[in-house]
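User: My advisor, Dr. K., asked me to get a structural model of this assembly before our group meeting. I'm new to this, so sorry if the format is off. These are the inputs:
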Amino acid sequence: MNRRAFLSWGTAGMVSLSSAVAVSMGAVARFLMPSVFYEPPQTFKIGKPGDYAFGVPTFLVDEKIFVFHDRDRGFSVASAVCTHLGCTVAHFQSDQKFHCPCHGSVFAADGSVVHGPAPKPLNWFEVILARDGQLQVDKDKIVPATYRLMV
Amino acid sequence: MNLIREIWQSIVRRDPLSTDKGKSELVFLNVWLHIHPAKVKKENLKFKHTYYLGFITFFLFVILVTTGIALMCYYRPYPAQAYQDMKDLQFAVFLGPFLRGMHRWAAHGMVVCVFLHMCRVFYTGSYKKPRQFNWVVGVVLLLLTLGLSFTGYLLPWDQLAFWAITVGTNIGSYAPLVGGQIRELLLGGHTVGEAALLRFYVLHVAVLPSMVILFTVVHFWRIRKDGGLSRPVWKLKAKKPEGLVTIGGTPEVAQLQAVPASTDKTYGLMEVVTGKPIFETITPEEEEDVAFSYPFAFFREGVALMATVTGIMAISLFFHAPLEELANPAKTPNPAKAPWYFLGLQELVSHSALLGGVVAPAVMVLALLAIPYFDRNPSRRPKDRKLAIWLFTIFVVVNLVLIVIGTYFRGPGWALVPPWVHVVAGAE
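Assistant: The format is fine. Below is the predicted structure of the whole assembly, which you can bring to the meeting.
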């Protein structure tokens, strides 16, 4: 084998080897990314509009959302997950604000950050009236804080 | 009787330990002991040189593997069973609380000892040439130790575990570009759930321990290959002594000195090589300052091992590992805190998630890794390294202060509350 053949075969070999390794690493990464998530669905129904009182927001524990029902402006749904590190915020009636227990972030009534390390306002989720007359929330659809559903 | 002797001699082939040859052979004919040299420098055996922190760390790891395997017999990594198994370990399993306590205190102890070991190596300048790379291996082992501790933190599946990991993994998701994906990869989902528990379990009992073992082997091997432990600081002379014995070196680099042969030793020339050795060599005058590893080094290691095991056992008798109520994703405890060694990080994160949670730790790790290559000062004497010692001390103190603030001075809502003030959590 001469020098030219050695170098070209060697290069071809190294290229195929490194591409094989790269592809395998990609496959490993993809393998570790689950194809199916056994997690609660992002879209769910939360009952009839009449179930929710006016004024005081209702906190749904499992879904981690606040459901607001305003007499004049209708329904809106806020996330209870702090945008800082994922702790569950509480809504204080006394000052109409959301308080995070972990690092002291405070969010105003419209979800905007008043104080603390949270980098983003709280999310508001789309809420619609489903065919069966129940309210339906979609956590994948983020809406502006001004979004309202009139029923 | 002859048969018994024959069997014994087929297992142990060394000469009797009363002879020097037997003492040497005990070390280098034994696969487990031959990581030691047959002889060690007497000064390196001094407690005040190393405080045996490397050994203690290793022994704590041995305790962790042993008790960990025992705990695995009673633990199922599924949310529905995990907490129940913890309760069983606490109340039903014979010696359950004791073993779990040992595992937990040894884990905390290992984090502490790895850190102290790193401080010792820094302050004695032992990361300097030719030991630079072993420092890097050590930093990797520090990170693996933190990873082991962090993954183990989730397994009890109580409130403490759940929220510490929720907060901890969310810190990681602030890393630019890949942060969110890394979190998803780690958790196997979007929230801390059953997939996350299983993955943390796999990391905790298989992946990370194997990596620790691999890196520990390299770490120990390098100690030998770099010429054994570094010389104690108090033995260092102000000026570098002339002339390491170098065979074949140019005369101005080193000189081969004539040494009178001692009468009770046999010397043999094994091989002639050229060039300077990469490791520290023992000069002929130092040759007399060495002692056989058996019994001098082994005895001290044995004492360190027993002290470590008894210490952990004693602590576990009096302090049990805590177990809070079952993990409840809907109810965040107030305040929710990460494991204590990450509370400095959490304190930084409470000011800025990106700067404190990603930039600061990344810079810290990179700085630690770079120390042996960045520090060009060849001297190991504290007098010559005032700046380095100051900088490292500031690094240590800042870390400790942040951890103390995060642990003792942060109350509900992460408000600054001194530890002597009692706050009723949940009060509006």
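One thing worth pointing out at the meeting: Chain A touches chain B at residues 29, 32-34, 37-39, 61-62, 64, 84-88, 92, 94, 99-104, 116-117, 119 (CB under 8 Å).

User: Perfect, thanks a lot.
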